[in-house]
Amino acid sequence: MVKLGDWIDPQPGGIYVKPGDVWIDPSSPQPRALVTHGHADHARGGHGAVWATPETLAIMGVRYGPQSGTPVAYGEALAFGDVYARFVPAGHVLGSAQIVLEHRGETIIVSGDYKRRPDPTCAPFEPTPCDVFVTEATFGLPVFRHPETGDEIDKLTAALRANPTRCVLVGAYALGKAQRVIAELRARGFDDPIYIHGALQRLCDLYADHGVMLGELRPATEASKAELAGRIVIAPPSALQDRWSRRLPDPITAMASGWMRVRQRAVQRGVELPLILSDHADWDELTSTLLEIAPKEVWVTHGREEALVHWCQMHQIKARALMLHGYEDEDD
């Protein structure tokens, strides 16, 4: 008996599409790769040929140098042997995509990373019916229920107003999270200059080149302590406790991450102002997405697989954990 989806081979280092002889998000260089988005746990350099959205290819170019890449617009159809593929938005970061595969009358979607919250920096997740849905489970536990984005941004601006002689130093991952924090601030009417760590400059410029309005950004290293008082400074999480932060005027240390729901993580990082802001779906969004798409099977990867598999089984959805290696949250 032919098993559903047996033409897809999930291996520790990625997902191999056998009849198309192509990999999805391989963790080591492969002759042919489809890439869902630009985070380093999904997009690696050194592949022989790459198919990805134009934005993802641009991000890979910034990180790894020029790529042998073919840009694929959302909705554009590709053929790999008798496997047909198309990319649809995932709502994770700029250019992120779900990869829809059709073969032998079956549809499998490899979703990569995704979220369901509105995000001014990227196209929203597009629910697409399928037979097999390969889902992440980064926040696949019921304890993870993200608050409203606007409320977290308001916490940030309130802390700034209450401490005019200090700055707020926000740790935010360089790709996606930093730009989203900036864009969400702008959407809430915050028009002041925002100061950024040099490590964020190239990706912020890339986002601006792709039409994401980030307003006035200034290099933090070129400003005096007096200039930075009462300002927001955004830096990679690694800079929060680094010598770099000593130049700042008594910073209020903040961190924008879904992991800030876990108080111990905030304490370990010395975070004074935890901001629960994630680019991944929370528990309710994961489960509601599965109910909306209604696949025959769910394959769960990189995250809290067991809880989501159990939820599927309780809702009469066949499910299994893939246990892929090498996937991390990259400071979400």
Automatic annotation (TrEMBL):
It comes from the Bacteria. It is an enzyme of class 3 (hydrolase). SUPFAM superfamilies: Metallo-hydrolase/oxidoreductase. Keywords: Exonuclease, Hydrolase, Ligase, Nuclease. The keyword Hydrolase applies. Its EC number is 3.1.-.-. Coiled coil: none annotated. GO terms for molecular function: exonuclease activity; ligase activity. InterPro entries: MBL (IPR050698), RibonucZ/Hydroxyglut_hydro (IPR036866), Xnuc_lig_assoc (IPR026360). NCBIfam families: Xnuc_lig_assoc. This is Ligase-associated DNA damage response exonuclease. It comes from Sphingomonas immobilis.
